Amino acid sequence: MSDDLFPEATWISLDEASQILDVPVNKVRQLIAEGAIASLRVGTPPAPRIPAEFFQDGEIVKNLAGTLTVLADSGFENEEAMRWLFTADETLPGTPIQALREDRGREVRRRAQALSF
Description:
The protein is α+β, with helices and mostly antiparallel strands. It has one domain (3-114). The chain is 44% helix and 13% strand. It is built from six helices and five strands; from the N terminus they run βααββββαααα. A hairpin with a 2-residue loop joins β4 (55-56) and β5 (59-60). α1 crosses α2.
């Protein structure tokens, strides 16, 4: 996986995410395992990275975990879900991750739920 597939994303390490959230790195790994946040192996050499856009004001963006769950329930793999979050949607407008950061989670979840039909 190359980080050029998501040029809009600013990739951070698990260590950087732990600093943002003020939790140990193991807690970040747990959050990934639970689906509260998502990561991909990017960079050279490939290493687990998380989009910085998943964090705001020292916390995980509101409604991100629920959106990731809806996407997973719709059959989206991790990379597909992240691609969807960073792909512009003219009906929002902007990208779903931008809408989540602007506290428009209901709109994003509605679109994510519609993907399963």
